[in-house]
Amino acid sequence: MQIAIPGFAKEEIDIRLDGNQLMIKGDVKTEPVDEKTKSISTGFQRKSFELKYELGDELLNTEIKAEQKDGILNIWLPFNENHKRPAQKIEVK
Amino acid sequence: MNPGFPTRVFDDLFFNGINRFWGSDQCDEIPAVNISKTEDGYTIEVSAPGLEKSDFAIVCEDGRLNISAEKSTENTNEGEQFIKREFNYTKFNRSFTLDDTLDTESINAAYNHGILTIKVSKKAEAPKLLKQIEIK
User: Fold this and answer.
1) Do A6 and B49 touch (CB under 8 A)?
2) What stretches of chain A show up as alpha helix (H) in DSSP?
3) Is residue A93 part of a domain?
4) What's the pTM value of the predicted model, to 2 decimals?
5) By C-alpha distance, which of A51, A55, A44, A43 is closest to A27?
6) pLDDT, tens only, A4-17
7) What is the pLDDT of residues A26-62, one digit of tens each?
8) Rounded to a whole number, what is the distance in Å from the CA of B129 to chain A's nearest CA?
9) Is A6 within 8 Å of B36 when comparing Cβ atoms?
């Protein structure tokens, strides 16, 4: 999973796994406004965000890794091999 | 160009629009930019995460500043499939017109946290000579 977060420093990102829920939060602290700088065109802004994902059972109890490089947050969610659902035959009634 | 309109220093070339219209397999994106005016000149911030310094080419020619990037390294892992793809910053090109008040010799660029920041300074002003005219 890759999240584009240009302009964010590692310290501004918080990733947590709470039960089945993966939460990724980016917290932007308000920067002092430079009065001598005037914005002409704003194409993007750094804003605080929060992303939540419900992880399926096959993603639980595994080591989730995260790395940030050049404005991209990479998150690795490996499958839990032991949690394969056994093949089931579903009867049609 | 209307000299009386001071904020219209930068123009975008429309060829980027044409490229998008015809479509492209490479999914060329036009990156978002922030332009701000400072005491010394202008600052352009280009949102381009996931690239490396060496992927960028910044060229200034005939009063036009051209910023392009192409990702040189392919990062796809075997067996990797995209389930959802919302961004693809692998290749882009954007141009800006610089007016005469800007010093094209001293443009400076830095790439940090996925943002390319380009600073263009104003030319140093020649000291204005004050001449007193005698009335005869």
Assistant:
1) yes
2) none
3) no
4) 0.71
5) A51
6) 999 898 889 999 98
7) 988 777 777 788 888 888 888 899 999 998 888 887 8
8) 27
9) no
Give the ipTM.
0.74
Structural domains of chain B, ranges and CATH numbers in brackets: 15-70+86-118 (2.60.40.790)
Instruction: Give me the residue from B31, B33, B39 closest to A41, CB to CB.
Output: B33
CA dist., res. A77 & res. A80, Å (int)? 9
Q: Is residue A38 situated within a structural domain?
A: no
Inside any domain, residue A91: no
* Residue from A35, A36, A40, A67 whose CB has the most chain B CBs within 10 Å, to mutate: A40
Give the A-side interface with B, CB within 8 Å.
2, 4-9, 34, 36-45, 69-72
Which residue of chain B comes nearest to A41, CA vs CA?
A: B35
Buried b (16+ CB within 10 A) or exposed e, A5-35: bbbbeeebbeeeeeeeebebebeeeeeeeee
CATH number of the CATH domain containing A11: 2.60.40.790
Give domain status of residue A20, yes or no.
yes
